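We treat protein structure as text, and this decision shapes the records that our systems exchange. This encoding replaces a full spatial description with a residue-level series of whole-number codes. Below, we set out a record of this kind in full and without editing:
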Amino acid sequence: MIATRASRTFLSGDVLRIWINPGSPVNIIVLVRGTLYLSSIAPKDLNQAAGMLSAGASPEQIFGSYHRAIPLVSISKVEADLRHNTFLVVYQSSLGSAKAEFEMASRTEADELVDVLRQQLGESYNEGKIRVDVINVCGLPLIVLLLHTALCYFAWMLTTPRNGVMHRTSPVERWLQDGPGEMGVLYFGAAIAGLLLLWMVFRFFGRRSGVVFTKS
């Protein structure tokens, strides 16, 4: 029996690769005969399944109908996020374009799968780096920061005299003037802006990073 977060890799010859990740929804990945098999089985059965596959059983026998078979020739793109050990496979199925995502148990196993794909996909695929999508990474924090800045500016305007006169016509104006005041609004705005900037930096340094294989 495998511990829930344990990971093991089985290698058998040059034509069979098996990777196990009990903590992932797709917990067993098999590459054999030019086909990538993705399946999810009971964690207690992972060792037995890997042993049967290594002994020569076919993935179809082991997984039955509970698997996805992706011929390598049908793949149009593979994105390997080596920062998070995740893979995105885009391929052509009988129903058209399809996607499959899965996670490897460790960086070592992710690197191993990348090496195997590099060998088996061959020269018909171009290899490059995953591009940094700045808008996707920083867009949301930046939008929130701009909205926060506009709101704080509006609140600050309510706490300062206009044309030399302090207006107190609305409950919001009275609450801001009697409560936080001008400096309180500025301090609050600066503190929240700092947190939003930290969020943006965290998202940037936690962005996807790795390699991408694209069919020529």
About this structure: The mean pLDDT is 85. The chain has six helices and ten strands. Residues 134-158 form the longest helix (25 residues).
